[in-house]
Design brief:
By secondary structure, the chain is α+β, with helices and mostly antiparallel strands. It has a single domain, classed as Gcn5-related N-acetyltransferase (GNAT) (Aminopeptidase). Helices cover 30% and strands 30% of the residues. The longest helix has 15 residues. The termini are far apart.
Length: 151
């Protein structure tokens, strides 16, 4: 396992899109959206550079005029799951939030993704809401948040 996290760059677009497609099929982010995210969030779009390929990424967006961030997406290739890459990527997101004075960080996760829920809980996130039909009918999500003592 190689954990080597850096900021995403335009040359990563296709690798990120391929990773998305391998995990989410047609519902994954495409090249256009990924390019826009790199442009909009240059300091909070992180990738894990494996030995030969990107093995994961995480994207943090800051809610305008607030001290709140959302982890908009986190993705680790199937062959690399369970090796600490997701933990490292979320850790980088948390570090970004604390460095920038943000007080709350939120994310969503499928309720049946118990390994992800456990990971997020181990990093200080807790379930604050369950939203039915989050993306479409029958697709529920848990909203999990982490706050810092100064909030």
């Amino acid at each position: 396992m190689t954990v080597s996290i850096r900021n995403a760059r335009p040359s990563d677009i296709q690798a990120i899109a391929d990773l998305e497609a391998s995990l989410y099929g047609a519902e994954g982010y495409g090249n256009y959206a990924i390019r826009q995210f790199i442009d909009m969030f240059p300091d909070s779009f992180f990738v894990n550079q494996g030995e030969a390929v990107l093995t994961g990424y995480a994207l943090v967006g800051v809610k305008a005029a607030s001290k709140m961030a959302w982890i908009l997406s986190i993705c680790v290739e199937k062959a690399s799951q369970g090796q600490g890459i997701g933990r490292a990527l979320i850790g980088r997101c948390i570090a970004y939030c604390t460095k920038n004075g943000l007080e709350v960080c939120a994310l969503t996760v499928a309720p049946d993704n118990s390994s992800a829920v456990h990971l997020y809980e181990s990093l200080g996130f807790s379930v604050t809401e369950r939203v039915r039909d989050y993306y479409r009918a029958g697709d529920s999500r848990l909203v999990m948040t982490r706050t810092w003592p100064n909030s």
